[in-house]
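Q: Convert this sequence to structure tokens.
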Amino acid sequence: MTGHATDTIYTGIGGNIPGRADTVRDALETANSKKVVIASCMSDGGIQGLGRNHVYSVFEYDRKKDTVWIRNPYGEAVDPKYATGLPGELKLPFNVFYANFRAVAVETDETSIVPRR
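A:
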């Protein structure tokens, strides 16, 4: 993402790996407080604005409302039910996010770029 290593949490297609939802919530919340970049990979969608096998930026996770704010970098039209009013951005209930994304990658503080010699 930015030259840093990432920690990836796999949820399975449709979030079918048991016990991972709270791990994903914790990772999203930690990323919020550190202001690090998060990217998510799409599974088998069904929501307008979400493309299959596509990467999205995650801007915010609100634990109290249990919502995840994401952005499609292509800025495509989105389902009005989840639209934020900004091009390509959606605010999804966590259970909808979790059911539609198969992995969440969270940037760490470690550098992953090998220096040139």
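The longest helix spans residues 21-34.
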